[in-house]
Design goal:
Two copies of one chain form a homodimer. Chain A has three helices and six strands, in the order ααββαββββ. The first copy, chain A, has about 140 residues and is of the alpha+beta class. The termini of chain A are far apart.
């Protein structure tokens, strides 16, 4: 595997751990996965932005105390790496509910740590392509 | 102004230019603002992810041919800088419609260029704080 492929694989591993923590309601793992050094933020679907580690982790503590059922799954994750930061865009699937998320990571002491997550609902399904003239709001 | 404040200011200037291009339907400016070097992606509200410069700019060409009315405005933008990348989280306001967006930038030859944009609708208004127990989907 090339260095680039190895790096992408490491980012996708961190992304999988995020959804494992999410699905399992594992706050301890979620806490480890988020950066302790860099400023972090989060945009949960329909929420206003949440900024700062303490507030972000407080939202996760609430969410993970009753994780979504059926368990959330990440589908079609694609990692893009730019040096010491990377982002994964993926679908999130909760039963019949579909969302699209961006998860932003930074490299800290050899580990990819989350610094930002934004998720929003979509009517579209994994595998679908944007259509010409496709527009909802903008 | 400190170096950090100057950098944040430069990122916010790039973010303002993005919304100026968006509101004015100025595809030429929008094209300049997106990176020509780094891989780019976009998640328009309700859309599946769009990946690759050609496809992303094609979506902008479509959107900017009929930009939203009343014109889109960016409210409460906050920039976070991590070395050669930065992101801005802000509200987007189109009349009575509120969205939250993350705009991701990389530094290229001294200019902050967009590499990713995700926007999603919110019921919440600028100035509001997440409430304890606040949850929509997750």
């Amino acid at each position: 595997m090339s260095d680039a492929a190895e790096t992408e694989s490491a980012v996708l591993t961190a992304n999988r751990a995020f959804y494992r923590a999410f699905a399992a309601g594992d706050f301890g793992l979620m806490d480890i996965l988020w950066s302790h050094r860099a400023p972090v933020a989060c945009v949960h679907p329909g929420w206003p932005p949440v900024r700062g580690r303490e507030k972000v982790m407080e939202t996760w503590r609430g969410i993970l105390s009753h994780p979504p059922t059926p368990p959330i799954r990440s589908v079609e994750p694609v990692a893009t790496v730019h040096g010491a930061f990377a982002y994964v865009i993926c679908f999130e699937v909760i039963g019949e509910l579909y969302l699209v998320a961006t998860n932003l990571f930074v490299l800290e002491e050899g580990a990819w740590k989350l610094v930002h997550h934004q998720s929003g609902q979509t009517e579209r399904r994994p595998g679908s392509e944007p259509e010409r003239g496709d527009r909802t709001i903008h």
